Each structure stands twice: as C-alpha cells, then as structure tokens.
Predict the 3D structure of the following.
Amino acid sequence: MFAAVDLGSNSFRMHIGKHDDEAIRVVKSARDPIRLAAGLDNKGALTTTAMQAALASLVRFNAILSAYPLDAVRVVATNTMRIANNASEFLPAAEKAIGYPIEIISGEEEGRLIYMGVANSLALPGERRLVMDIGGGSTELILGRGQEIERVESFSIGTVKQSLSFFPGGRIDGAAFDAAILSARSHFEDAAPPYHPQHWKNAYGSSGTIRAISDAIAKNGLGKDLSYKSLVALKQHFVEAGHVNRIDLAGLRPERASTVVGGLAILIALIKELGIEVMTPVEAGLRMGVLWDLHLRATKRDRREQSVRAFLQRFHADETRANRVAEDATALYGQLKPAADAHGRPLYWSALLHEVGTVVSPTDFHKHGAYLIENADLPGFTTREQRVMSKLILSQKGNLRKVAELLSEPDFAKAVLALRLATMFMHSRIEVDLSELRIRMKNKIELDIRKDWVAEHPTLSYWIEKEREWWDEVGVNFSIRTQN
C-alpha cells in the first residue's frame, strides 16, 4: 500500500492506494483547499498565515497516513514551493508536520508524473496523446505515445494567479475575461507548434480544474463535450453572474468558483492556441502518477535507473568504466557498514555518471559533471536527490574542502570515501580484488591492502598518500596498513 501527497498551489491532496492486479485502487483520499499560491506576498515569500494553514493541513494528513500500513509514502510539492523565496525556511517545519520528506519537484518532473498517472489509467498502449494539466501555479503539457513521454513542458501560469490578476475581489466582466484569455495565450503561443493536433490522436485534461469545468458544462446543459463552443458558453455564464459569489452551477462547488474562472481563461487560451476541437477529462493525474512511480520502484522498475542509463548514452560516457566504478563503489560502501541505506542508490548512480563531465572538458571533469547532474532534467529524480549526486560527483577527486560541511554526516562521508577509492583504482588502471581489501571508517579511516599491489602499481602509494593528506585537511585521520 502506497501514499501520494500533492502539495499543490491551490489544494493539498492525498491518495492512499493499493496495487490490485493491473490497476491501483484508491482506498482513501483527502483534500484541503489551502490556496498556497494566494499566500505569497509581494516579495514572493509565503506569509505566516499561509504557512500556518499549510502546517495544519499537513498535521491532519499525517494523522490519516498513520492509520494505514504503508509500504512507501512520497510527498511532492509543486510550483508555489518552487518559487517561494522562503521555501527552504518553511520546509523543515512542513516535513516535521507530515512526518515524511517533502520533495520540491521540477515542472518537467510534475508533467512526467501526471502523464504516468493518465497513461496507466487509460491503458491504451499505442495511443498518441496530448495530456494537459492546469494547476494552481503552473500548467503542464505532455505529448506521448502509450507509456512513453516524447515531450513535456511546464508553464508558469496557473488558476490562482490568473484569477487574482484579472478578477480582483471576485469581480467578473467580459473585458477582464478577454484580457485573461489573451494573457494566457501569450504564455503558450511560442511553444504551441509541437502540440498541434497532427502530433496526437486524443487530448486529455487531467487536472481538477478541467474536470470541474467539464462537470459544470455537462450538468448545466452548456454543451455536450469539452469544446471551444461549450467553454465560451460557460464563460458567458460567469460574465453574466458578475461575481464569483453569484455563480450558481450544478457540479461546481462555490469555494472552487474563485479559481475556476482563471482556469477557464487558461483552458480557452489553450484550446484556441493548440487547435484542440474536443478534450476528454480524465480522473487521473499527479497523485496517481506518484502511486504508480512508487509501485514501479517497489518492483525494481525504477525510472531513475532508466534516466541514468539514458544520460550516460547521451553524453557518450564509457559504460564499461562506469559500471566498474559503480560496482566497486557499492562493494566498498557495503564494507563500510552505513547506518542506513539512504545513500546506497545515489552512490551507485553517481558512480555510473562520474565521468559525464568529460563531454565538457577532461580538465576538472568532476566539476563539470557535478554541474550537469545538479541542473539536468533527470526524469524520476527530485532536486534534492540530484543535489546529493552532484556533491558526490564533485567529491570524487581532489581536495575535500569543497564538501567539508557535508562530511559530518557519517553515511555521506562513507559514500564519498567509497566513490573516491573506486575511481582511484579505476583511473590508475588497478585491477583490485575487493574481497582482499579491508576498509573501515568510524572516528578515522583504516585501509588494509596487499603489499604486492603497491609493488605492482608504483603510483598506488602516491595516490593513497595524497588521499591521506586530503582527508587530514578536513580533520579525518587516514591510516594504511599493508599485508602479505
């Protein structure tokens, strides 16, 4: 059983689901209309009121999660947490409130998870499709075929800001609506061509906003489908109401009206800009995508592994060397007996990617590689995971002062040591039987190696001595013993 928590710009939502044959069955859902995006002040910071409301919701979600026997929980935060300039200050309190790490995901990763949720729910393996999600703080467009994503983009326009900007105080008129639509079209016009109808067979809308709009149209006789004509009819109904508080439509909850008006403007803009005749709303999206992602990880089909392998090929890294360093680093890390396994997979992936920086320059390739990994679009990875991998890749050679502040975490220090030794052996062309090597790290590092290795590889003693100096610079004693 898995749980997906989505800290969106409009609402906080949660699904608890269980994989059942070929589907994931949702057994519990929860939603709090936090409207986090509206809680940003004029300096781009979350207000105290907004943070307090968010924390109260997270405490409630924690109580719900505690009632279920969960195998894994993933909490993701989207656009507002991406752009809030005090998000890093708020994050520790938020993680404490919900009891799990919170991942601030990129817009592209958000789009991939949305598509994963839709694709697994539709179960149409060969269909070429466009998936659209209009959220509180951003809008995602994803083009794909079956389970495969071909293109994904995130646009920083969402229902909350559009509503606040063009319908202040909840007032609605025709001129404001037209301005909101025109503004939205300006966000998409340059990016539109790859998403035109010749590139897909069916278009799907995955967000709660699109489903709410579809329900309002269907239940109030405003149209038979989600088309430009029916959307304009709904727009006219809103304009005639004149204020969000006077909107009275079956299928549209009153508290949703204030953001749906902005969402409708964005949807009309997209329908026109992309040339979509009819869109199909679908009951799937980010949370279902997160649940499927957790299921795939549990069944050893981790998308992150695929991302790393694709990145290796993209940057023409030597996979034989990469695999050797990854295997050796993993074996050495196991000898060091880490307290937990938090760095095991990041170490393995970092070792695989340790030479990707050579595509920029063989000089300081570890620095180039660290930059690439921290800033690349790696499907399945969170910003936090990429930052950890970046630091590991940076630490693979040279002085340790550049990561000194991170070495206070024992398991991270052990991962750094394992990667440094693995790369040292490989770059020195030393074929080491790791079963004949002993490495320990507690208050100091103790390395036992065979005496004949030093005799056979004269540079080994030089590199180990340099390693001793570099660890000594950060206050860690490194002792080496040779044995027959």
Q: What stands out?
A: The mean pLDDT is 90. The longest strand covers residues 23-32. The CA atoms of residues 224 and 274 lie 21 Å apart.
